[in-house]
Design goal:
Layout (H helix, E strand, L loop, with lengths): L15 E6 L3 E11 L2 E11 L5 E2 L2 E2 L2 H15 L5 E6 L4 E9 L4 H15 L7 E11 L2 E13 H13 L3 E7 H13 L10 E7 L4 E7 L2 E8 L4 H11 L3 H10 L6 H27 L7 E5 L8 H9 L3 E3 L7 E2 L5 H7 L4 H7 L5
Parallel strand pairs: 1-6, 3-16, 6-10, 11-14, 14-15
Antiparallel strand pairs: 1-2, 2-3, 4-5, 7-9, 8-9, 11-12, 12-13
């Protein structure tokens, strides 16, 4: 039942890098143990992907993506060959189930397979299935809570093929939203009382979609995805100034655009982004018993667009900040701190994947 690369949830490994494959590019993070439960950021790097290489989380061109992985490995200077990869949240079905305690590993596997057939709309031989024992059920200690996860085999195999074509050995396959939340835990520790009792909303604004997670004391309260991302601004730049998509993407990051672009394009985009955040929070309030959010964290490449934090905090009246997964970490000799501050919000998933090295 375990995947051919080990486990969807993974095992503890030695030198390992986290590689996040998204619509816009490939991001790599390598962490080291700095002692006293601290991490050191050894290296990080990114490489853009051609349009269409990855669409809606699906790898459409294995050769282009594996070539980008090769380039990002070389650019980073890492010598690691073991990698942790992420699966898009929408590609994985997860379900918490209750099983009797005291079962052997083989008995657990049989029980999980039996339960999984009720929740998975595919034949079991078409999916990669894995499970993770969370622990005893609070009000029924003789039972255990188990998280099962399943994904179509071809989606897992495409990511494995990309890594292997780049000369790497995939040993961990995680779920991107889980990896992001792992990285966020380190950041939440920086809040008052280490974030205890605070409801935190994480908005990962990607190229095409925004992923929303709302958490309380590390537990997920709510999760959804909305079709809004940085490509909307890129497309407006393409349309307004006749640039290629690649040129528009580059100039969006540097701000090297004709005078007036801020008022004509940037400000309306920021207003739209803030509106999307406010709408997502409204969905959260109406579909759960909760009526407040204490802090908003913004992640993804769009998080550092000038004015984004102010637009969101103004629209929502909630304290808002850009998240850096490397907050509080030691920095390796080759890391430039000023550049890292700008880059960090886009590396939340890659950082969470790299953390899998430490179990």
């Amino acid at each position: 039942m375990a995947l051919n690369l080990g486990s969807l949830f993974g095992k503890r490994n030695a030198a390992l890098v986290g590689i996040d494959i998204s619509t816009s590019g490939v991001k790599l993070v390598e962490l080291a143990d700095a002692g006293k439960s601290q991490f050191r950021l050894e290296r990080y790097a990114s490489e853009p992907l051609p349009r269409g290489a990855v669409v809606e989380g699906n790898i459409e061109n294995i050769e282009q993506v594996s070539e980008a992985v090769r380039r990002v490995m070389k650019k980073s200077g890492t010598r690691a060959k073991l990698v942790a990869l992420g699966m898009p949240t929408a590609s994985v079905i997860t379900k918490k189930i209750i099983l009797p305690g005291g079962l052997s590993e083989d008995e657990l596997e049989l029980q999980v397979e039996s339960e999984a057939s009720q929740y998975i709309p595919f034949a079991l031989d078409e999916v990669s299935l894995d499970f993770d024992v969370i622990g005893p059920v609070p009000n029924s200690p003789e039972d255990v809570e188990v998280l099962l996860a399943a994904s179509r085999k071809e989606k897992v195999e495409d990511r494995v093929a990309v890594a292997e074509a780049a000369g790497l050995k995939p040993t961990v396959m995680d779920i991107e939203s889980y990896a992001a939340r792992s990285a966020l835990e380190c950041v939440s520790d920086q809040l008052n009382n280490a974030g205890a009792g605070q409801i935190i909303a994480l908005f990962q604004i990607g190229a095409q979609n925004t992923h929303i997670s709302v958490l309380l004391d590390g537990q997920l309260l709510y999760e959804r995805e909305q079709p809004f991302g940085g490509n909307k601004l890129t497309q407006e730049i393409v349309r307004s100034y006749g640039l290629s998509h690649e040129e528009a993407e580059a100039k969006k990051k540097t701000g090297e655009l004709p005078a007036g672009w801020e008022s004509e394009l940037l400000e309306p985009f920021l207003e739209d982004a803030a509106q999307e955040v406010a709408r997502a929070l409204q969905f959260f309030f109406t579909s759960t018993p909760y009526t407040r959010v204490d802090h908003i964290f913004l992640a993804g490449g769009c998080a550092v667009i000038p004015g984004m934090v102010d637009a969101v905090s103004s629209k929502t009246a909630i304290a808002t900040s850009v998240v850096s997964p490397f907050t509080g970490m030691q920095l390796g000799a080759g890391i430039r701190e000023k550049q890292l501050r700008h880059d960090a919000p886009a590396y939340l998933v890659a950082c969470g994947l790299a953390m899998r090295r430490f179990g």
